[in-house]
Every structure is written in C-alpha cells, then in structure tokens.
Amino acid sequence: MRKVLQTQEGELMPGWQKRSMEHQKLYKDFLQRADKKKILKQLPDIHEEAFEKIDCLKCANCCKNYSPRFKTPDIKRISRYLKMKEGDFIDTYLRLDEEGDYVAKLRPCPFLGADNYCTIYEERPSDCHRFPYTDEDVLLKRPHITLKNSSFCPIVHFVLERLV
User: pTM of the predicted model, to two decimals?
Assistant: First the structure.
C-alpha cells in the first residue's frame, strides 16, 4: 500500500467515489478508444503524481474489501515467512474462488493491521505488490478491472481523471 486523495489537513477528499461512479461510462469509452502507446508513455508520471498526493494508509479499501490472488509462489513464500506448512496456510487463510484462484477467506484481509499497514508487506502477494496497476498495461488491457478498481481505489480514479 502507498499513499488517499487528501485535503491540506490530510482528510480524504470528499466525493471522489461519487465522481468515479458518475464517470464510469466516460472511463469505459476512453479505455476502449485510447491510444495505447501514448497512454503507456504517460502512465509512469501520472502514477508517481498520484502516489505523491494519495496516502494508501488512509484508505486501504483494497485490503478491506477485496482479496488478491494468492499464486503458488506467493503461498510458498508467505507460508515460509509465517513458519507454516503450505497446506496449513491454505486451510487457515485461503479459499478457492469461482475462477479457481486462491483468495483470502476473510475480509478485511487477515494480514491488514489496525493501522492499515500490511503485516506481511515484504512478503505480500504479487497482486498486492502490483496493485493498482496504474503504471502498467493492465490499465488498458483489462478495462473491466480498471473500471472496478476505480470505484474503490482513489489512485485509479486520479489516474483516469488525469488521462481523460
């Protein structure tokens, strides 16, 4: 996790989720017609700007409401870190979703601390490390994920607003 839209006082900027929901059609249309090469060149700078302005630790919506996929390398690494057998780790923390992927059994994520810090941050799943995908081609290649993410992640909303 990183930096949520804040006012000067550090409070979350009011209304970003409502604006994001109102702009879903605009975002969808933009993602369908976007000049992919041009957008991919812009993403790194906009991504960095978003993380300078937005504090993930004030939000943690991703960890509170959704689960990453826990791929085999993630399971091996995290279970080793927690000094658990892989099977015990899976039984304790994971379930198979509709797509056959391992995801967290509980919400919020069992590794999210009360302070919104990840208790396994250095060993977190690769999906967590890459989220919110605002500096890579997933933003364009998987528009349905981008649209979903923009509804709960202020960074995705910020990036889309800057691109549109």
Answer: 0.87
Per the domain annotation, does 8 fall within a domain?
no
- The closest alpha carbon to 63, from 142, 139, 146, 153, belongs to 153
Is 116 in contact with 57 (CB distance < 8 Å)? yes
The number of distinct structural domains making up the chain is: 2
Task: Find the mean pLDDT for residues 74-78.
Answer: 98
55 φψ region: left (φ > 0), alpha (ψ -120 to 50), beta (else): beta
Q: What is the mean pLDDT of residues 120-124?
A: 97
Instruction: Look up the domain containing 147 and give its range.
Output: 16-63+131-163
Q: Whose CA is closest to 54, among 136, 157, 129?
A: 157
Q: Which of these ranges, 9-18, 116-125, 148-157, has the smallest mean pLDDT? A: 9-18
Do 98 and 121 share a domain, yes or no?
Answer: yes
